[in-house]
Each structure stands twice: as structure tokens, then as C-alpha cells.
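Open question from group meeting: does this chain pack into something compact, or does most of it stay loose? Before anyone orders reagents, we agreed to write out a predicted structure and look at it together. Recording both the input and the output here so the notebook holds the full record.
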Amino acid sequence: MSMESVDLQPESEVSPAPIARSRPTVQMNLSDLGTLLLSLVLALVIWLIAVNQENPLIKEQFTEAIPVTIVGLGEGLQPVQDLSKESVTLELRAPRTSWESMKSDDFRAVLDLTGMGPGEHDVAVRVTRRDPQVSVLTVQRPELTVILDRLVEKEVPVQVEIMDGTAYGYDWQAPIITPVTVTVSGPESQVQQVTKARAEIFLRSAKSQVERTQTLVAVDGQNRPIDGVTVAPPGRVQVVVPVEQWPGRKEVAVRVKLSGPPADGYRLSAVRSEPSTVVLQGDPDALSQVPGYIETEPLDLSDATADVRKRVALLLPQGVTADMDFVMATAGVSPIEGGITVSEPLIVRGLGAGLSADTALAEVDVILSGPMPLLESLNEDDVFTILDLTGLVQGTHSVEPTPLYPEGIRIEGVIPETVEVVIKTQDPEANGSLPMLPDVKATVTSVLTGTSTITATGSAVGAGETIPPTVVASLTPSPTPTATPRP
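C-alpha cells returned:
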């Protein structure tokens, strides 16, 4: 019996052995799960890094301001301040692709006044966005202070203020206003300050009745504008200001009397007086005999070639005086304009070395216009027509002729506008070609009368010669112009 009991004791001691052998299997499964989770985390991190490199998140301030929209304003209430100009700026975080297409319409800034009554309120600005990938980090001025007041209206008179005066010798009379009263509406605290609606009228030295349609401004008792109120209907009035002349006075125009003709080739272009009107004073019967103007003593224009300016006396009738005895008279004298057409030979310039040029025309017609004295003094050395072939190679080209002409003359056109030029290698035996002009720069100091001086610098191009650095040539004009009058 004792042996069996001994045998039983070891059996009870070793009975947990099978449980101990199964523990390594459980530990292996937890290790595999940890490895799997770590792999997933690493894969997610790698994916996020790849995505961020391709389309990175950018954090910066949005350049456009977002206007604030008011919602929930109670009936019969109105903000005291003007909220229509309120806006906020946003700091955002978004992928680069979202920044590229982002615009202000993608956001809405709302100021919700639902349930708020009269008084001062601090209201948070609620910003929503259209793109869910965009995050709003901060809102500049996230809260606005709003003062609400009851919406009221009242009737006030219209007052016209004359801001300047009439012309000398005239007075303005009491303005006629339509309508005489208007209605102002807005927050109660603002409307209570309004005492009238003001219309500012400028007469600007008027000599007759002034009629204006004028905008009204609501003002307080000290004539200061009140903001936040509306004037109706529709904030404008019709104002008529009668203007009357003083008795025993009459305003008339000044007529400058002229004598003598300008020089040949010149004409009278304008006549003016400073001032252009004067106020006469005297007996009403004497004034009634005066026409609508008063003359001056003669202004002599004999042989004038420029404007004539002189102080001249007024010729007043007997028994009539004026607010001034003299006026400043100016007569404009201008050259008579005309036009002519001249035929000019073509002068080739800039032809390359070893080349020759054949043109379809040897000369072109140049249409000139300007003062007749200047046109009549032109001679054959005053106008040149250049055919610039600089940089052109062998072949057929269409080249625009370039006229050179004196100051004061205008070129109205060249006929034809382009000339066909055939450039080819130079034939040593060829003759009869167009005259060649060295590639020079020239300054013409006088081309009309006397001796003309031309200063040229440079060297001949394509002529096989070199000219000195400076050449001074004297040109003596031909006594007889070769200009052909325009048909």
C-alpha cells in the first residue's frame, strides 16, 4: 500500500507538465503579431513619405481676404457699424495641388447673429471650406464686436448750402427745392442725431439760373455727416437757384478790332481778349442802346509773321462806364499751310562690298506739306530719298525709301511705298548704276537759305574707299526751286 501511495505522489507532481510544454507556442504567435504590426506601421510611414514628397503639405497664409457674410439678423434690427467691408485672412495647411487651384470663393466666413437683440455682442467668425484636404489653422480676427440697434426712420427737412458765388454783377436768389423733406432710416442711435439732409450747390460764377440734381447727406445739428443712415427717396433732390443781374449793369462781350493784314504767306488764326466780357454800368436807357458787345481800339497786324499781343483800350459809349478800361488782346498769326509733290532720285546706301544693285525705279514721288513760305523756299538739295540696303544679300528685295527733309516740313507719303531691288555680284564693266552714298551719319544745320553745313562721320561702305573721320561740306541752294506742285 505504501508503494502505491508513493507512486501516486510523483504522478500528482508531474501532472502540470503538459501545460508547461504548450507555453512556447503561445509566445511564438504574439511575436509574429508584433512583427506584422511593425511592418504595417513601417509601410504606412514609407507611403506617407512618398506621398508628401510628390504632393507635400504647405502651411502659409492665404493671400486673399475672405469677406464676412452676415446671417441671422433679427427683424427690425440693424448693425450700427458698416459690416459690409469686414473681412478676415486665413492661415492654411493644404497639399500643393490644392494651393495651385485655391481661390477666395472656396471659403466662406460667416457671422451668425441668430437670436441676438439690441446691444453689443462679441461674435465668433465661422469659416467653412470647400476642399476637405484644406485645414484652417488660424483666423485673423476670429471674433468681431457687433453693436445692434433698432431700425427706425424719421422725416427731416432738406437744406441747400451755396458753396461759392455768381459772376460779378449778379446775385443768386432763394433756392427752389423739390422735395422739401426726405426720410432717413437706420439704427436708432444714428437716426436720432440727424437734424436735416444737406445739398451742396456750386454756382461757379453763374450768370443765369442754375439747375442741379444733387445728392443729399444726412447731418447733425453741427453740420457733421452721420454714417450708417439711408436717405429716401432716393437720396437726391432737384434744386433751382435763380440768378439775377444787378440793376444799372449789363455784361457784354469784348470785340477786338483789327487793322492791317499779316505778311504774305501768313493768316489770322485766332483772336481773343482777356477778359472776354466786361460789366458796363450806367443809366438803364443808355445801357439798353449798347449791343451785346463793346469794341476795342484797333490792334495792328501789318506784316506780322507771329502772334501779336497788346494792351488795348475799350471804346465806351457816352454815359457808360466799365469795371475796367483796358483789356489784353491777342491775335494769332500762323503760316498758310500747303502741299507739294516732288520727284526725288533714289540714293543707295549700305550696299555690301562686291555687290551691285538694280532698282525698278530711279526716282520716287514724295508728298510734302507744311507752311507755304517754307515749301516755297525748298530747293533740290533740301530733300533726299535714301534706299538703305544695309545687311541685304544677293536676291530680290522690297525696300521702303526713307526721305530726309528739313524741320518744319511733314512727309505725307511716298509713291510707291516700296521699291524692288535686285542685288547681285558687282560687274566691273557695268555702268549707269544709281549714285552711291557712303554709310555715314550727317547733321544738317541749315537747309533753307544761305549756305548749308553737313558734318559727316564714318567710312564709305562698298565703295572701296575710306573718308576722313569728319567731313564738312557747304551746299549752296539753287535760286530756283525744283518742286513740282501737287496736281
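Observations to bring back to the group:
The longest strand covers residues 143-162.
The longest helix spans residues 17-54.
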